[in-house]
Amino acid sequence: MQISDEQAKAMTSAGLNLIAQALTIYDSDLKLVVSNAPFQQMFNLPDRLVTPGAPFEDTIHHLATRGEYGPVEDVDSFVTERTDQARAFIPHYMERTRANGRTISVEGSPLPQGGWVSVYTDITATKRQEELLSARSDALSDQVLAHTEQLAATNRELAAMITTLEETQRQLTASEARTRLTTQMMPAHIAHVDARGHYTFSNNRLSSVFAGRPSDIVGLHISAALGASAYDRIKPALSDAFGGISTLKEFTDDTSARRIRVAFTPDTLGGAYILSMDVTEETQTREALQQTRKRELAAQIISGLAHDFSNLLTIILGMQSRILRLPDVPPQALELVNGTLAAARRGGTLLSSIGDVTGPRAQRPTATDPAGVLSDLATLAQPALPDGMTLTIKNNAPDQAVLLDKGHVTDSLLNLILNARDACGATGQITVTQQVVNETWIEWTVQDTGPGFSPNALERGIDPFFTTKGSEGGGLGLSMVYDMTKSAGGDLRLRNGDTGAHVTLRLPYRAALPATTGLALLVEDDGDIRATVRDLLMHLGHSVIEATSADEATALLADLPDIAMILSDIQLVGEATGLDLAQRNAGRVPMLLMTSLPPDNALFRTGQQLAPVLRKPFTADDLAALITPACEAPQ
């Protein structure tokens, strides 16, 4: 049977009232938290002073005024003195004789969270027995009697102290358990190392941040737990922490290819506290946002210039056309006019390229076969290569559909191949390698046997309008590849290898939803939209169950283990959103998000890090494009 809070309070109060001793608990602000009936009866207190929240000083003032403490000349000063003693929260035991002639003992114990508990016991009978024993024990020496009395008082003080220590131990044990549970629930690794670099504490989550590392690391040296490569990265920051300086280090772990942020905080004994977090998704989002801001700034600056140049080119083309229509134009003039027209048209093409660089390029990922990307790439690139040049394609990626904007990826790789062709000349070897890195990135490397990048090209190769091709190049190809890559949260790196230039393009690896026609959970708070999307899902062969909020969807997921996929709006009624639902789901059930928010909205960008996002309105084909075709589903 479930007991309510009110029932629990009533049962607790009844239990306290059965205790013969008077009991009070005051909080750190000297306000009454709880007392029992014997306390009110012992001191004959009014109801207002035994009501939770009653001030301690009011009770002392009432008792002093009634003569509880004997004659008191200055009641206010007496109350202030007793209140200051209470605020000190020192464990104590005392015995005093009241104005009515009865003797009581008072035991006080502070509480770990502030405040204290006091127990008042009427020991009048005990004291009388001690006095009777003293009177009837003429044969005993005064020294033995004094020792007996002292021993009895010491035993009472010892019992009070033991009770205090037991309560303190219980509170500390509970506090330690809560602290450890809290640290284990955090999505980060929390640890402490001593001055020699050995772990003295860990919340056992190292493996969740540094993939492939152990979790049971207490006693290990940090270099043994992390491995040589990662330890070399954080060693300078750790040394600073040992020297008393708080430091922050962010790096890419070579083992997992994940982006890791580590904070070091020195302790007072020469060791350090360490907080490690996986910030891969945060970094990808930040890179995409930075690139978007750069494009917006470039668009503001360039759009005005492009507009003016377009007007000038229009005038030039018009005037040259009028010259061509004049009678008896000399052949030399025709050659000059045709050259001017060609240059103006090239200028128009360049302005269009500028518009592509600065304008919005929305990512439209679909379920894509990585092997098919390479096959299409070879078909497009091979005719553009001279007879003396060889193109080799290597596919090391698993046979699993991936969410990619196939058009952007193909355009980027083709651009890199044509750059490699121009660098090699008439003969050479171009190799394209595709692989998945730790299920974090899908990576393409384009390498050639040309002369490689010059130092200037390595530094400025991705800058708009930088070219090494002279008048033949516009300087926008590699810049556009970089822009597309960063906008998708990826990375582009240029370097020279043993045999020419190497360009590595990385994009976030996101597996497509597996092919399924099972039960779909649709989460949408708008009834009309829900009906429309339900029809789309049923058209694709799904049976559908519906929810209008993230909390309702969470309950259905707990009750129905056979749900095959989730399609949820980002914005929902209630405090929880579709993003909260995605985090609760944590990848257990394949999931899609949908929204009418623009791609530059913060919720949209966050959603992209959790699941594929569909822009409203969308069709059945748009929805199906994010799901692995049944014929291509991995076995």
Describe the structure.
With 635 residues, the chain is an alpha+beta fold. The chain is built from 20 helices and 22 strands. The strands form 5 sheets. The chain has a 5-stranded antiparallel sheet with strand order 2-1-5-4-3. The protein has a 5-stranded antiparallel sheet with strand order 7-6-10-9-8, sandwiched between helices. Strands 12-14-15-17-16 form a 5-stranded mixed sheet. Helices cover 46% and strands 21% of the residues. Helix 16 (527-539) links the parallel strand 18 and strand 19 (543-547). The two termini are 50 Å apart. It is elongated, with a radius of gyration of 39 Å. The longest helix has 46 residues, at 280-325.
Q: Detail the poorly predicted runs.
A: 470-475, 630-635
Rg from Cα: 39 Å
Q: What is the average per-residue confidence, as pLDDT, rounded to a whole number?
A: 79
The shape, in one word, is elongated
Structural class: alpha+beta
Distance between the termini: 50 Å
With strands numbered from the N-terminus, the spatial order across the biggest sheet is: 2-1-5-4-3
The helical percent reads 40-55%
- Beta content comes to 15-25%
List keywords for this structure.
22 strands, elongated, five-stranded antiparallel sheet, disordered C terminus, single chain, alpha+beta, 635 residues
SSE blueprint and pairings:
Elements: H1 5-17, E1 22-26, E2 32-35, H2 37-43, H3 56-65, H4 75-87, E3 92-97, E4 103-110, E5 116-122, H5 124-136, H6 142-185, E6 189-193, E7 199-202, H7 206-209, H8 222-226, H9 228-242, E8 247-252, E9 259-266, E10 272-278, H10 280-325, H11 331-358, E11 366-368, H12 370-381, E12 388-395, E13 402-404, H13 406-424, E14 427-437, E15 441-448, H14 455-460, H15 477-487, E16 491-497, E17 500-508, E18 519-523, H16 527-539, E19 543-547, H17 550-559, E20 563-569, H18 578-585, E21 591-595, H19 602-610, E22 613-615, H20 620-624
Helix pairs in contact: 3-4, 10-11, 10-15, 12-13, 13-15, 17-18, 18-19
